[in-house]
Amino acid sequence: DLYPSPPFGDTAIPSKPHTPHTMPPQRIPPQPGQESVWDYPRPPRLEKVEKRIQIVFNGQTIADTTAGYRVLETSHPPVYYLPPADIQMQYLQATARGSFCEWKGNALYYHLVVGDQRIENVAWAYPTPTEKFRSIAGYLAFYAQLMDACYVDDQLVTPQPGEFYGGWITKDIVGPFKGIPGSWGW
């Protein structure tokens, strides 16, 4: 299925023409030390991240790394990709689910099981991404809204609005963000 039903990561969707009801809202000007998602490129860009990224679920630290990447795309908060070596992979189970991103290629998904808690399709990875995204081959991204807590340099992450995308919002990022009601056509 080319465009499976949400949620399916940061996968691109077909563009829709702007109408008065889908026009992007006014860009929030970033303050010093902040970035506006409206300054991010399309097609998206991949960046190395040296900040500490942590994910906690059901009392267990699932991931802890300073070797991640982030994908930056217009109107979206960053999506963080983490190396499997810094993820407690024993808690993850590959699923049959897949999706396609026009920029990164084919993705596969993972369930997370920690103790008596299970979340389906909570993480995704591109095992053989396109050339531009080769650095994140096999790295995993997680939906922050399904975790107990996600942190970027000890800052608690706010999940991207809606259930469709997997971006992480911190105080360093300003929007408005795709995912709020009425943003489908942005």
- Considering DSSP H and I runs of 4 or more, what fraction of the residues is helical? under 10%
Q: Which parts are unreliable, with pLDDT below 50 for 5 consecutive residues or more?
A: 1-19
Radius of gyration: 16 Å
Instruction: Trace the largest sheet across and list its strands.
Output: 4-3-11-12
Estimate the global geometry from the Cα principal axes: globular
Question: Biggest sheet: strands, sense, closure?
Answer: 4 strands, antiparallel
Q: Oligomerization state of this entry? A: single chain
Through-space gap between termini: 23 Å
What number is the mean pLDDT? Answer: 88
**Pattern of helices and strands:** EEEEEEEEEEEEEEE
Number of strands: 15
Q: Please count the helical segments.
A: 0
The percentage of residues in β strands lies in 35-45%
Helix and strand content put the structural class at mainly beta
